Amino acid sequence: MQRADSSGSRNDTVGVKDEPTVQTRVPGRLDRLPWSRWHWRIVIGLGTVWILDGLEVTIVGNMASRLAEHGSGINITTAQVTTFAAAIYVAGACCGALFFGRMTDLHGRKKLFMITLAVYLSATALTSLSWTAWFFFVCRFFTGFGIGGEYAAINSAIDELIPARARGRVDLIINGSFWVGAAVGSLASIVLLNTAIFATDLGWRLAFAIGVVLGLVIVLVRRHVPESPRWLFTHGRAEEAERLVAEIEQEITDNTGVELEPVEESVTVRQRHSISFTEIARTVIREYPRRGILGLALFIGQAFLYNAVTFGYAVILTTFFKTPTGDTGYYFVVIAVGNFLGPLLLGRLFDTVGRKPMIAGTYILSGVLLFGTAFLFQRGVLDAVTMTACWTIVLFFASAGASSAYLTVSEIFPLETRALCIAFFYAVGTALGGITGPLLFNGLVSSGKTTDTTLAFCIGAGLMVAAGLVEAAIGVRAERRSLESIAQPLSAMAVPQTATGRQV
């Protein structure tokens, strides 16, 4: 690390004359690290939150009919669970993402990803104690509030700690792990909905307890995940960032026996403890308008499709194919497996073939396949098994595309805005697609008319194809590039010719 004078800045709006400047090789040192047990610890400690989200959403979707049954211990209808409660959960996630996203950029990744997990655990535990609809709705809001905050804090930390050459596949697989939770939730619901094993008013309460137990395990692992060195050196803590990276390098060298190559590439930034929201908004809008349109398109398309299907697929099975309530979990497990296999098997291609062709391709292909599914459904040639097979194929590709939406917005904006940008696009995209999706989708499905459900399928398919076309037109080639080369930090500046100081 090299201290520099304060002459010359990236732009006149960033920095104040008396703020210290630091030249650092931290980004390059992190990107050149070989994969190791340290990286696995990051993935497990941070990435497993998506399993919680998948568990939450799936359990509620599969438990909808049971919650509405007489003797469940809560006075609520199926429609309230699949529409209003679903929308409340997503609204909470949007609010949580915005609030905690700003806090994450101000106060660091580590502090916030511990707080957001605590909010989630508390709200989930209280959900299991619900006795009336209004209390259930309140708990769902704050559960979503915690999960939304996790999205902003976790995606920021992961992308800033994972080497550039593997960032795409790792990010996609981690986001795709949502479906591991969905599969667990589906299997658990099969057992918990069995009244021969659990009473009507007990099984659904125990379902929420699963999330609490898993969350507590994650807390133990997450305690050992460090703060992002990239965040540290832009917030007046450059010495701490250097020490932390040195410790990481030593641990990886000891574990792998690999001698690390020296890094010459550096970045010079003006250290600041905070950057105002107004300054962030002005910079992003002025310098990255096309990337803003891209982020919104990707998020709206996937949010509508996924929130609608996740919250409403069990209703489709019971409404159109007369599938028993206790059996819907079997079908959803198949869909969940297909969803996870998409990012798992296709993720490597996002780093090799490239972001633009893979993101555009997965979005457009999944949309076209969904149009085909809608046509077959309208013709009445599908049953519960073949319908599930069609959705599994559609979502195999859609899942990789949807995961890439989070990857895209987490890497195409400056470091100082990363968490807030993730939060903004998640919140706006999800508010437009994730709240209206369940309301519109389930409203159409609940009518019991084939034409209405076909229309719902076509809306989701159209939005996915449209988002894919936007990616093809203005997508960013971010594969195997450092975050700083994709979007220069707001506080970055040219290295002064007169820079002096000690080398660390």
Short description, anyone?
With 504 residues, this protein is mostly helical. Helix content is 72%, strand content 3%. It has helices spanning 26-31, 37-47, 49-67, 78-107, 109-127, 133-161, 167-176, 178-192, 203-222, 229-234, 238-256, 277-287, 289-320, 328-352, 355-379, 384-411, 418-446, 450-474, 483-486, and strands spanning 2-4, 21-24, 267-270, 492-493.
Give me the side-by-side strand order of the main sheet.
1-2-3-4
H/E order of the elements?
EEHHHHHHHHHHHEHHHHHHHHE
The proportion of strand residues reads under 5%
Return the structural class.
mainly alpha
User: Helix coverage percent of residues?
Assistant: over 70%
The total of beta strands comes to 4
Number of helices: 19
Radius of gyration: 23 Å
Can you summarize the main beta sheet? Answer: 4 strands, antiparallel
Written overview of the protein:
It is built from 19 helices and four strands. Helix 5 (109-127) packs antiparallel against helix 6 and helix 13 packs antiparallel against helix 18. A four-stranded antiparallel beta sheet has the order 1-2-3-4, with no helix packed on it. The protein is mostly helical. Helix content is 72%, strand content 3%. The longest helix is centred in the middle third of the chain and has 32 residues, at 289-320.
Question: How are the SSEs ordered, and which strands pair?
Answer:
Elements: E1 2-4, E2 21-24, H1 26-31, H2 37-47, H3 49-67, H4 78-107, H5 109-127, H6 133-161, H7 167-176, H8 178-192, H9 203-222, H10 229-234, H11 238-256, E3 267-270, H12 277-287, H13 289-320, H14 328-352, H15 355-379, H16 384-411, H17 418-446, H18 450-474, H19 483-486, E4 492-493
Antiparallel strand pairs: 1-2, 2-3, 3-4
Helix pairs in contact: 2-6, 2-9, 3-4, 3-6, 3-8, 3-9, 3-13, 4-5, 4-6, 4-17, 5-6, 5-9, 6-17, 7-14, 7-16, 8-9, 8-14, 13-16, 13-17, 13-18, 14-15, 14-16, 15-16, 15-18, 16-17, 17-18
